[in-house]
Design brief:
The chain is of the alpha/beta class and 410 residues long. It is built from eight helices and 17 strands. It has an eight-stranded mixed sheet with strand order 3-4-2-5-9-8-6-7, with helices on one face. It starts with 9 loop residues before the first strand and ends with a strand. Bound molecules: S-adenosylmethionine. The site of S-adenosylmethionine has 23 residues, from helix 5 and strand 11.
Length: 410
């Protein structure tokens, strides 16, 4: 196949997408991802909250008709996810990944930097067992029913410390009966998480001071979509080592989204970076290469499913044959571990890659690299004098901790 020349990338969004969306639930470890930490001052409860109230309240503070939500984000890229959230009109009272939103949540399901979005409701109970009381149980069910009627989930699962306890089992039974959906502890579509509340705005105002009192309670979070947001509908082909789409989004946002950029994605694999970049807006050119014919075919399937038109070709990224300074932005998720194609392993590959990218990048261009081979990559950077480099983030995903760097020519 001939090497693609940089051309203006075109959106084919107007074409109907007839592919089925077999989405891998990439972040299956989602439930283990810690919640975003609110700023330090928001951890503090008001001093007067130390004396607990005797009567448990059943209503959660709700400003107007807004509902409370929480984002799940891969640790390390919180700043990108929060910046994206801040751009959503009418989102308010953001504390860590938690916020209030008064409108239909569909806009929230279009967030690309978050793994998932949950509806949150806080119950003023000292322990989950109290949720089984008749009145509270009705409230739990009506809350989960509203989430289910929005997301049309066909099954559910519960993530909580002690989910094998009789309380959790009883809760699961009632949810299944009342919502008419199956309890599937492994793959349930509505992920329901129970955990002690840290909501400082909990409880009605003190009648004398008007301040809201913190109080012990439990949060019930329910994922509003049947699949995580990171499991993109365009991913009809998946490959080992495929990049989590929220990491791709973070890399591209931090690289800068400029319409005038001619963009190159060497080692494009299943095409995650190419598709996510094209979805962010037009560019002067967008081209991907991979040395593996199956990877090229896989990327092409995903590109078609995404309704985009992006050129991908089978080419060795170490020797592309492209003219010098063809690109303003090069973004790459480098191979790691055993996924190496050259004698000499990753060391030789990374070294040749850096040389070829230096040749291909324009004078003011940016090279953004994600790698798991952190020690090797940093050693190579330390041994050279042609690149400035800056760390962008280290992300924690599925037991891996790759780092992202931004390089520019000295
Ligand atoms: C970590 S994977 C990229 C995954 C990709 N970001 C995705 O989302 O699927 C690395 C890719 O580099 C490709 N690769 C390895 N050596 C290469 C080379 N010399 N030239 C071009 N591609 C190469 C592999 O075939 C593999 O698809």
């Amino acid at each position: 196949m001939a090497m693609p020349r940089p051309t203006r990338s075109k959106s084919a969004a107007s074409r109907p997408n007839t592919r089925s969306a077999a989405q891998p639930d990439a972040p299956t470890a989602a439930a283990q991802v810690p919640r975003l930490q609110p700023p330090a001052h928001q951890h503090k409860k008001p001093a007067h909250a130390a004396g607990k109230r005797s009567k448990a309240r059943r209503q959660v503070f709700a400003p107007g008709s807004a509902a409370e939500y929480e984002l799940e984000v891969l640790p390390g890229i919180e700043m990108v996810a929060l910046q994206e959230l801040e751009g959503v009109a009418q989102v308010r009272d953001i504390r860590g990944g938690r916020f209030w939103y008064p409108l239909d949540p569909t806009r929230l399901t279009r967030l690309r930097g978050s793994v998932a979005v949950y509806r949150v409701k806080t119950f003023a109970v000292p322990r989950p067992k109290a949720l089984l009381g008749h009145q509270l149980l009705q409230e739990v069910i009506s809350y989960l029913r509203s989430v289910q009627s929005y997301g049309q989930h066909k099954s559910f699962r519960i993530s909580a410390a002690g989910r094998e306890t009789s309380t959790m089992q009883r809760l699961a039974e009632v949810i299944s009966t009342e919502l008419g959906i199956a309890h599937d502890p492994q793959d349930g579509e509505m992920l329901i998480r129970l955990r002690p509340s840290e909501n400082p705005n909990f409880g009605p105002p003190d009648p004398e001071t008007g301040e809201r009192l913190a109080e012990e309670g439990w949060d019930i979070l329910a994922r509003i979509t049947p699949r995580p947001l990171s499991a993109r509908a365009w991913r009809v082909c998946n490959r080992a080592g495929g990049l989590n789409a929220t990491i791709a989004f973070a890399l591209l946002k931090l690289a800068g989204v400029r319409e005038a950029d001619r963009i190159f994605n060497p080692m494009s694999g299943s095409g995650t970076l190419l598709i996510e970049r094209d979805l962010l807006g037009p560019s002067a050119a967008l081209v991907g290469v991979d040395i593996d014919a199956d990877a090229v075919e896989c990327a092409q399937q995903n590109i078609l499913a995404a309704g985009r038109q992006i050129e991908v070709a089978q080419v060795d990224a170490q020797a592309t044959g492209l003219p010098p300074r063809s690109f303003d932005l090069i973004v790459s998720d480098l191979p790691w571990g055993d996924a190496v194609t050259v004698a000499g392993g990753n060391e030789a590959l990374y070294s040749e890659f850096l040389k070829e990218m230096y040749r291909l990048l324009s004078r003011q261009g940016r090279l953004v690299v994600l790698t798991h081979e952190i020690r090797l990559f940093e050693r190579l950077l330390g041994e050279q004098t042609r690149w400035h480099s800056r760390e962008l983030f280290q992300v924690y995903s599925g037991g891996h901790h790759p780092k992202a760097y931004l390089l520019s020519k000295k």
